[in-house]
Inverse folding.
């Protein structure tokens, strides 16, 4: 009896393999590592749903390598150590071929040692502070030079801002981004006293003093602009206080890096019209691919739902992974990684995203003005900007480069011509 | 006959037809700039448009500024457009006549100038709009003018002052004219007079004018030019001028020998390794600065690398060269006048800023007070520790949100929400007291834990019902904006409303506790429940009502806090620890104590923020440390009741 | 002496036996040392649970026996984790830097090595210099000393101030909570020099043991945690037995009366508070290399409150009760939040346990306080009572 079952199983398996004509075990398992509970749930649940939709679409189109894709969803509950635990579980217990996940930088840093130890593959879809390059991570979100730097250029060139207020929530992304921007601004000839930096805690609500300080910066006779890396709920109080102070976007423009369609839905935007955000994607982008994506999303998740930048990052990342696996003929991590380099996939905003050897994408940068309906009016779009793992504007990082394809190193010192380390710095 | 007639008509129309296309032609010749304008390139185009003198230019510029210009794909012509449900309605740029309606959005490209370009367009429009009959346009013109002061606008502005009918705008025009006079006035005398007026001007714009007049640049010279209007002689290594940076300027601009930093030494040594030896020293020994310096000096002697610049050489360079901050404005009388005016203005600004911080502190204190006053009743008067107090605040805020979903009028919904929030949280408080707390009156630590259990359950319930995303609670229009006392001191109406609300509750609570039957009974029950019971008071009922009252106030506080900040399931947790501290610091059992506690905490936090404006988080940390220490040394709080120590 | 102590306290013997048996079973089933029925990630979970049990015992002693409801013991736990984490990060980075610099033409100076390590560690938070508090991080011995000293001193100073001013009851609870909040806020600042919100990460990689697989490392930490739990249990059982234990319990029951009897109550409280803080620090130092990352959210006030919840559910005033509570609730929590519990479909509404677990926890907590003040541990007492 048992022998018979075994025999049947073997036959079936060999038939399947023959049918698929590829070296993949069916079904192909894809891990989804996004918090479904806790503080990050609101942002990350959307991405989990996006992944389920993309997998569903791909399965309808025939899956990958002739196999159906099976999503394995786990909940790290916005608890950073739990991210490491769940990643280990995905890779060793569920044996997934690839993981799509994480939102916060700290959760990524928590996962890094595990996926590097077990040689997993992670697609990370959120804009982040850079200064990192892991062999096992593809960064489909924006590096600072794909979001912050173009936005500052826009401030300098187009709005003629001469005095900057860098306001941020006190955590790694704003800190690093502001460090880079401070140096960049100084290189551009902005004096140190014309750069005002302030950090507030998560969920900060008492903005009166800070807003009046920023407005007061105008006394120097220079045009003032705000670069905001304020995160999450704290934005609500900030924009409310800004509106109460009667400051319009013409007098004091604010460009935000963490405010998207999703965040604006918690706000009355009529007072914010004209303030800016920089992303690689806006729902208002007028292309056919985007219209299709939005329709599919609304059908999948509900008519009132909006799309945002990290969703596009997953869209590009997942499709690239499927194409790379097809090209490699396998879902095995090393083969897929090699096939990833140079992968191209059309952006939802037009143009083509390319995967670079430093595991970042080349993507266009868009700047949008907030409109009364909570959407963004795209007023500036660059050509594709290649993502830079190590910023050129900090002296320690300027000498570093990442090239996993030819140099085989994510932290290569171009000055000493040595590889600083093969693991990433976590 | 007929044919000739037609021809005559056509000929008669011809000049019109040509002129009717004039603006379009002009636009087409600046096509690229108009389609993709940039702040830096748009200037000549705007000049050309204004210089053309065409009557339709103004309308076009206004439409352009408001993103209402379209480029139609079919004929590649510019149109003014307006968006409606049935598609675009396009108007001819020259005549303003309706050209076509119902155009699909895909067939016409909307031209979207960015903020910088819109500002430039605004400046170009100033001349047209300064005397416009529409007051909104005139205001717009003045806004644009204030944003970029330009010498060319002085004459038209002054010309428009006399005919200005609106008193407010007239003052503003005079003020702006004064700014322009101060910067671009014809003679020094006019300028100095205008500058002296600025001494009384506290506005950011006015101070900006002074700063612009007083703008300096750094001048490095061996001999100070005679005509230089020096603001300050700079000493390298003192103040803002870094020693290394100062020397680097000399290297960059005046060709002095470059500094050799440790990294340069390492690079030079690496480049000159010869058979494991550099400058006579084996490479293995080069793991410290002293040996490296010796090796480098050997290389210098061999003439392979540039010599190191000694400290003495740097000092000599600084002796040779002077560093000066020089005014861009060459006339010393003007800069002196501006200095004086700035000093006067600055003193007044500092005073006002202190007052402003004081207002912010009062506002913060009133928010803390409002959050804590319910607790002052339940914890302070009754001695019941309720960790779910924060969640009652949250419930109140969500009540406000739900009401706003049903009643769209913000004023009306606020009027409904306040009593409703009280009712909801009063009910919740009474239920909690009946079901849980009354069984635990003799076990305060267990009350703490049980109410904490309720707190996490309520928080999660709110998440399950409303989601984790912040919900909007929008204040009515009349609470928008700020009360402006002068150009520095201002406070938003919503904060004033919170202050008033806090004050109302203070009075109301004092009234209830001191002047009503209920208050008398409450005090009786808290002082001696048995005696009170034997006097015919029902202690159970009184405790229930008191607890309900405290919870209900928390609900109203929730609405107020939601209006000024946000509504999330975690908002209660943000206030709970601070609220307890407010009550404890102030002194338990006394509403005045809570007021004192809130004032002290709010004041202290603003004080620290003022000293260290770039780090709000540090202010909060210090505040908590301060509270911990304060309680250690004054355990009974600021307003201590006799005979009750912390913990009784 | 030892024998008589154990003989007097049979529960200690039972506990040690159960712990030993559990350790042996896990060792036999684990991936690294046995039949691989238990995955490495689960071994790590179990090891962490043992550390949580250890701090739960400490909490039980300070609250259940001495009557001080401290809402700050997770702060000490976190400090222990940070102390050991600093050495782990430093040593790991030092190894990386030395490898990468070994190939350079000229041997690096010690200043260059220091700079490179600092740039590596603090580069991610936008700084590049070692703050003062890292000055002992190069030495494992000194950092291990910090695991004990920093929580101990902090507890000593805080306790001395608080007990001296006779701050007791809920006031003390709020004060300890404020202390935790202040620490969490301090750590959240990037200027604190402990990498702000990111905290210290990659702690599971033990420097010098790069070639040892995680399955083995996890077992070593599991054994160490078990040993620490056993030692901690014996230590507290000894402290609580005899005359001293009686005084401590008496302080809980009526502080004023004990004071009138001539005991220096403050000294006893200070001793218990400080000792438990040190044990909490040790537990943290064992916990975080297994968790892999420590950051300020770990020290947030809520964590300390959960600690009280575990002890209450397990049963206060019984050492084994707190162990049961910590193990039971934390394992249950990971079962519920990990999607292990089947969702209940009510037709109109589906109860997703990831969403409703906290509601359940909160409600059960109220129920335990109201109806079941002895917690799970009291079940054992009832069994004992029945047996008699």
């Amino acid at each position: 009896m048992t022998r018979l079952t075994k025999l049947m199983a073997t036959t079936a398996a060999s038939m399947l393999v023959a049918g698929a004509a590829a070296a993949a075990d069916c079904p192909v398992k894809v891990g989804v590592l996004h918090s479904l509970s806790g503080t990050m749930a609101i942002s990350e649940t959307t991405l989990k749903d996006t992944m389920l939709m993309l997998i569903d679409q791909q399965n309808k189109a025939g899956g990958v390598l002739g196999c159906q894709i099976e999503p394995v969803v786990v909940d790290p509950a916005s608890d950073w150590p739990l991210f490491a635990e769940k990643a280990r579980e995905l890779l060793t217990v569920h044996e997934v071929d690839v993981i799509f996940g994480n939102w916060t930088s700290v959760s990524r840093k928590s996962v890094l040692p595990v996926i590097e130890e077990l040689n997993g593959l992670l697609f990370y879809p959120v804009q982040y502070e850079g200064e990192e390059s892991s062999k096992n991570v593809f960064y489909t979100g924006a590096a600072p030079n794909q979001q912050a730097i173009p936005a500052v250029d826009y401030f300098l060139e187009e709005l003629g801002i001469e005095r900057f207020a860098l306001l941020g929530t006190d955590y790694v992304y704003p800190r690093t981004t502001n460090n880079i921007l401070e140096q960049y601004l100084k290189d551009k000839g902005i004096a140190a006293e014309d750069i005002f930096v302030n950090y507030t805690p998560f969920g900060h609500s008492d903005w009166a003093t800070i807003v009046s300080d920023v407005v007061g910066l105008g006394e120097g006779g220079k045009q003032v602009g705000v670069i905001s890396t304020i995160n999450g709920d704290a934005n609500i109080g900030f924009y409310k206080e800004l509106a109460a102070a009667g400051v319009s976007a013409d007098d004091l423009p604010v460009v935000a890096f963490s405010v998207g369609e999703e965040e604006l839905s918690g706000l009355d935007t009529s007072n914010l019209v004209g303030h800016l955000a920089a992303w690689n994607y806006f729902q208002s982008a007028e292309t056919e691919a985007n219209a299709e994506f939005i329709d599919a999303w609304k059908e999948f998740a509900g008519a009132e739902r909006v799309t945002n930048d990290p969703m596009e990052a997953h869209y590009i990342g997942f499709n690239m992974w499927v194409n790379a696996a097809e090209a490699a003929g396998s879902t095995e991590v090393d083969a897929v990684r090699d096939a990833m380099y140079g992968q191209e996939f059309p952006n939802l905003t037009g143009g083509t995203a390319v995967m670079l050897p430093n595991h970042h994408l080349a993507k266009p940068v868009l700047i949008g003005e907030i409109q009364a309906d909570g959407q963004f009016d795209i007023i500036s779009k660059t050509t594709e900007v290649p993502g830079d793992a190590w910023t050129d504007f900090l002296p320690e990082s300027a000498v570093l480069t990442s090239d996993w394809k030819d140099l085989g190193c994510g932290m290569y010192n171009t000055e000493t011509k040595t590889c600083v380390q093969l693991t990433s710095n976590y | 006959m007929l044919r000739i007639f037609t021809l005559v008509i056509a000929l008669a129309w011809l000049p019109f037809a040509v002129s009717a296309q004039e603006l379009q032609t002009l636009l087409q010749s600046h096509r690229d700039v108009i389609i993709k304008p940039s702040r830096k390139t748009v200037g000549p185009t705007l000049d050309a448009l204004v210089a053309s003198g065409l009557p339709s230019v103004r309308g076009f510029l206004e439409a352009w500024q408001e993103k209402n210009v379209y480029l139609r794909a079919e004929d590649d012509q510019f149109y003014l457009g307006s968006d409606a449900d049935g598609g675009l309605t396009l108007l001819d740029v020259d005549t303003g006549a309706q050209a076509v309606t119902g155009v699909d959005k895909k067939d016409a490209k909307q031209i979207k100038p960015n903020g910088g370009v819109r500002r430039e367009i605004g400046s170009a429009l100033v001349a047209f709009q300064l005397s416009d009959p529409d007051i909104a346009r005139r205001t717009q013109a003045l806004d644009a003018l204030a944003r970029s002061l330009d010498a060319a606008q002085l004459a038209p502005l002054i010309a428009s002052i006399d005919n200005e009918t609106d008193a407010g705008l007239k003052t503003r025009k005079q003020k702006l004219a004064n700014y322009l006079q101060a910067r671009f006035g014809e003679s020094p005398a006019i300028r100095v007079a205008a500058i002296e007026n600025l001494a009384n001007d506290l506005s950011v714009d006015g101070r900006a004018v002074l700063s612009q007049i007083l703008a300096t640049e750094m001048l490095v010279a061996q001999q100070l030019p005679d005509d230089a209007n020096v603001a300050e002689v700079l000493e390298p290594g003192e103040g803002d001028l870094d020693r290394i940076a100062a020397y680097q300027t000399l290297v960059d601009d005046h060709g002095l020998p470059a500094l050799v930093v440790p990294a340069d030494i390492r690079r030079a040594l690496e480049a000159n390794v010869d058979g494991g030896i550099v400058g006579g020293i084996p490479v293995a020994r080069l793991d410290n600065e002293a040996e490296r310096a010796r090796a480098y000096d050997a290389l210098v002697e061999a003439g392979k690398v540039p010599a190191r610049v000694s400290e003495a050489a740097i000092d000599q360079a600084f002796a040779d060269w002077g560093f000066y901050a020089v005014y861009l404005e060459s006339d010393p009388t003007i800069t002196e006048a501006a200095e004086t005016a700035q000093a006067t203005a600055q003193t007044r600004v500092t005073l006002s800023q202190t007052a402003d911080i004081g207002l912010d502190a009062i506002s913060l204190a009133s928010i803390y007070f409002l959050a804590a006053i319910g607790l002052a009743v339940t914890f302070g008067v009754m001695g019941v520790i309720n960790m779910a107090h924060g969640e009652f605040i949250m419930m109140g805020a969500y009540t406000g949100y739900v009401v706003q979903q049903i009643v769209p009028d913000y004023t009306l919904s606020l009027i409904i929400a306040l009593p409703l929030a009280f009712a909801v949280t009063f009910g919740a408080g009474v239920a909690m007291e009946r079901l849980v707390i009354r069984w635990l009156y003799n076990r305060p630590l267990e009350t703490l834990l049980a109410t904490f259990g309720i707190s996490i359950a309520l928080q999660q319930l709110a998440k399950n019902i409303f989601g984790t995303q912040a919900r909007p609670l929008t204040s009515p229009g009349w609470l928008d904006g700020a009360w402006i006392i002068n150009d520095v001191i201002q406070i938003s109406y919503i904060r004033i409303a919170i202050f008033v609300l806090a004050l109302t509750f203070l009075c109301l609570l004092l009234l209830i506790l001191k002047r009503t039957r209920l208050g008398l009974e409450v005090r009786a029950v808290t002082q001696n429940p048995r005696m009170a019971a034997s006097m015919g008071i029902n202690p159970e009922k009184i405790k229930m009502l008191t607890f309900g009252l405290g919870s209900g106030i928390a609900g109203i506080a929730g609405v107020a806090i939601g209006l000024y900040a946000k509504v999330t399931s975690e908002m209660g947790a943000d206030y709970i620890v601070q609220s307890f501290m407010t009550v404890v610091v102030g002194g338990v059992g006394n509403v005045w104590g809570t007021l004192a506690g809130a004032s002290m905490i709010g004041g202290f936090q603003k004080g620290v923020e003022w000293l260290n404006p770039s780090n709000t988080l540090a202010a909060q940390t210090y505040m908590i440390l301060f509270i911990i220490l304060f309680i250690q040394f004054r355990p009974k709080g600021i307003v201590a009741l006799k005979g009750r120590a912390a913990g009784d | 002496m030892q024998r008589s102590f154990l003989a007097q306290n049979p529960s200690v013997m039972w506990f040690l036996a159960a712990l030993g048996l559990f350790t042996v079973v896990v060792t036999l089933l684990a991936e690294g040392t046995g039949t691989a029925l238990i995955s490495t990630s689960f071994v790590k979970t179990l090891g962490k649970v043992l550390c949580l049990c250890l701090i739960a015992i400490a909490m039980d002693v300070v609250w259940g026996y001495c009557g001080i409801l401290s809402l700050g013991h997770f702060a000490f736990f976190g400090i222990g984790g940070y102390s050991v984490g600093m050495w782990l990060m430093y040593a790991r980075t030092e190894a990386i830097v030395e490898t990468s610099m070994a190939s350079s033409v000229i041997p690096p100076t010690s200043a260059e090595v220091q700079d490179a390590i600092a740039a590596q560690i603090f580069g991610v938070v936008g700084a590049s210099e070692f703050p003062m508090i890292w000055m002992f991080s190069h030495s494992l011995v000194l950092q291990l000393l910090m695991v004990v000293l920093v929580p101990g001193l902090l507890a000593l100073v805080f306790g001395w101030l608080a007990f001296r001013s006779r701050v007791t009851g809920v006031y003390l609870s709020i004060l300890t909570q404020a202390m935790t909040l202040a620490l969490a806020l301090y750590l959240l600042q990037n200027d604190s020099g402990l990498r702000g919100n990111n905290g210290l990460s990659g702690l599971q990689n033990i420097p010098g043991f790069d070639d040892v697989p995680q399955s083995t490392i996890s077992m070593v930490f599991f054994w160490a945690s078990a040993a620490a739990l056993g030692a901690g249990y014996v230590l507290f059982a000894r402290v609580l037995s005899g005359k001293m234990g009686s005084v401590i319990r008496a302080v809980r029951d009526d502080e004023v009366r004990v004071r009138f009897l001539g005991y220096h109550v403050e000294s006893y409280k200070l001793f218990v508070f400080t000792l438990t803080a040190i044990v909490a620090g040790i537990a943290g130092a064992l916990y975080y290399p297994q968790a892999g990352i420590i950051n300020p959210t770990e020290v947030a006030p809520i964590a300390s409150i959960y600690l009280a919840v575990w002890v209450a559910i397990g049963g206060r005033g019984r050492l084994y009760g707190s162990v049961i509570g910590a193990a039971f609730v934390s394992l249950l929590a990971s079962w519920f939040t990990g999607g292990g519990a089947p969702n209940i479909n009510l037709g109109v509404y589906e109860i997703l346990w990831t969403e409703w677990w906290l509601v359940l926890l909160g409600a059960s907590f109220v129920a335990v306080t109201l109806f079941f003040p002895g917690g799970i541990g009291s079940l054992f007492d009832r069994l004992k009572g029945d047996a008699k």
